[in-house]
Amino acid sequence: MAVDYKSAGVDIDAGARAVELMKDAVKATYTPAVLAGVGSFGGLFSAAALRDMQDPVLVASTDGVGTKTKVATRAGQLGGLGQDIVNHCVNDILVQGALPLFFLDYVATGKLVPEQVAAVVSGAAEACRRVGAALLGGETAEMPGVYLEGELDLVGTIIGAVDRPRLVDGSRLQAGDVLIGLPSSGLHTNGYSLARKILENEDWDAPRAELGGQSLSDALLVPHREYVSAYRALSAAGVDVRGMAHITGGGLIENPPRVFPEGLGAVVRAGSWPVPPLFELIVRLGEVELLEAHRALNMGIGFVFMLPAAHEAQALEVLREAGETPYRIGELEPGSGVRLEGNA
């Protein structure tokens, strides 16, 4: 009996259909710097885009969306995952002052469903357009036996650039500098294993009064947001941003110290910003301790700007004019790590 690739679990035709479904969305992200994209063995991006920089520095990051994929497949809502992975990666390189040039995605599944893959990649393309990045290429992998049927994994790689004189590395941070936090849109892409464990016996589809009528599925799948526009506004206004932190896995406890110089720590005051109802629900149902909650979840703060106290008033005004709702959540102090004060 003849054996073909499809009978072994890999459907080449389904892969081709997925590419066809996503092609227009991907091409819509192209700028004149893109020389080759969909269908090429390698994406081509003109380095002439960097010629106006004095000393261009490339900044790269790779990440995934974790077990948020399990929530999305359970709910049958995959489009937001593409936005999640792009914005997560964009925010990671933004911490060093880099703006995105292009993005690459990797979607892996046990059985390829073209419409599902196209929904993910189209979501990524939408997020790329919003931040001015090209979705230069990617890979769709069908791997039966590695991934369970119905499961999906999503990874992204971003390449950005910053002029060396504008590099933000935290080296100029000082005691007394303030921490300005911007709200997250939800869990973003971290803490889903904890959330799923705590919420596993809840009804995920019914509207819940404490979530403003949203279901758990909808609340958990709100896409990760980006903070590029907020940084651009601060930069254009001349605010001295000395450090930044993307609040991902490790929360407000583990992420800010990644940019602190030796000898500096910070105090973060729980209660200085409103904790969204979804986080309150997870913490209450799971009886999660305050410190653990701020390590495992972002607790409503997705990004932190660190700047001199003398620039605080200007920064708050600029951010509000940009449509943000900023909060002073703490300040830097001699020491190390993050000290959590107050009650959420």
TrEMBL record:
Keyword Membrane applies: no
Domain PurM-like C-terminal residues, every copy: 174-341
Pathway(s) this gene product operates in, as recorded in its UniProt entry: Purine metabolism; IMP biosynthesis via de novo pathway; 5-amino-1-(5-phospho-D-ribosyl)imidazole from N(2)-formyl-N(1)-(5-phospho-D-ribosyl)glycinamide: step 2/2
GO MF annotation list: ATP binding; phosphoribosylamine-glycine ligase activity; phosphoribosylformylglycinamidine cyclo-ligase activity
This protein's record includes keyword Lipoprotein: no
Subcellular location: Cytoplasm
A single GO cellular-component term on record: cytosol
Keywords, comma-separated and alphabetical: ATP-binding, Cytoplasm, Ligase, Nucleotide-binding, Purine biosynthesis
Location, primary (coarse class): cytoplasm
GO biological process: 'de novo' IMP biosynthetic process; adenine biosynthetic process
Family recorded in the similarity comment: Belongs to the AIR synthase family.
Protein name (record): Phosphoribosylformylglycinamidine cyclo-ligase
Species per Swiss-Prot/TrEMBL record: Deinobacterium chartae
